[in-house]
Amino acid sequence: MKYVVIVDSMSNIPAHVLKTRDHIKAIPLNTEIGGKVGIDILDAEKLKHFYKQNLLKDNAKANATSPTPEQMTVFLLNEIAPHYDCAIFQSTSALLSDVFKNVKECAKTIENDARIVRKMAGITEPFRLIFSNSGNSSSGQTLLALYTDALLNKGVALETVVEKADGFKTNLRTYSVISDIMQARSRMKMIGHKTISMTSAVSGQLQRNAPLVSVSNDVFRIVHLKIGYKQAIKSLFEHAEQCIESGLHLPIIHVSYAGEISNLHGMKEFQSLQNKAKLHGAMVISGMMSVSACINYSSGSVSVGIAPKDQTLDPK
């Protein structure tokens, strides 16, 4: 069985990771910045150019939306069905995006349409699409894809893989430092949270507060609100180190940065995390946030995906 794990581009899975894993693919979200419509970017060189342009400055009007069911159908029929027998589509949290809703809609007809495409390619075996809501976003979503791919690569039975992946995602945590508190407020309002009032947002912006938030199991919550950017970054990476020491369900941490990657690598807190991971036999994967993630989180934001064994831990 030829399989593929599909994520959407909000996962921020780095292009260099995709190049080394033939069985993971990313479908791009739709983006609109200053009236210019496009599709999301994961390629490192193109992202460098995007961040150098600073297109999101001065509260530029921008939006990122899920691929439509029609776009998903085209992607699956052109790029997936002729080459793979089974696709496992793991969407961004249904709380944050319509990706899961849209793949569920297109799944109603995709297997039948895929049969026609595969027949034209001389393939008689049926195509199977399995889809799930990761309950997570950004870096946590990447970890789920890597975990699923590793199981399939070992030859674990498909049904067992799906069961294990469903169990694993409940242990995933994505923590993010959102550099722009007004952006955080807007994002929370979109999903029905009214935790940050306009007064608090304006006050926080003047004080340069950077909310530290968490997404897991379709729950979005604020961990810290009234702290500065540097303090939030310190809290975030110290927490990741603590999780490494306490043990991980998967010895990989994914760090995503909404900016040029050299800025992330220059942070002493990130360097400390890398050293801690190396000491304990874990791996740190890093990359730039996709355009869609940058739109949602704001430039300068940092996201960390982790699967700690101690689920009671939180950034201090």
Task: Give a description of the structure.
The protein has 12 helices and 13 strands. The model has no long low-confidence stretch (mean pLDDT 91). The termini are far apart. The chain has 316 residues and is an alpha/beta fold. β1, α1 and β2 (24-27) form a beta-alpha-beta unit.
List the main descriptive attributes of the protein structure presented here.
4-stranded parallel beta sheet; alpha/beta; 316 residues
How many distinct beta strands?
13
Largest sheet: 6 strands, mixed
Structural class: alpha/beta
Order of helices and strands: EHEEEHEHEHEHHEHHEEHEHHEHE
Strand content: 15-25%
Report, as a whole number of angstroms, the end-to-end distance. 46 Å
| Uncertain segments | none
Shape verdict: globular
Query: Could you give the order of strands across the largest sheet?
Result: 10-9-8-13-11-12
Can you summarize this structure?
The protein is of the alpha/beta class. It has helices at 15-20, 44-53, 69-80, 99-120, 138-153, 158-169, 181-190, 198-206, 229-246, 261-265, 268-279, 291-297, and strands spanning 3-8, 24-27, 30-33, 36-39, 62-65, 86-91, 128-133, 173-177, 212-216, 219-224, 252-257, 283-288, 302-306.
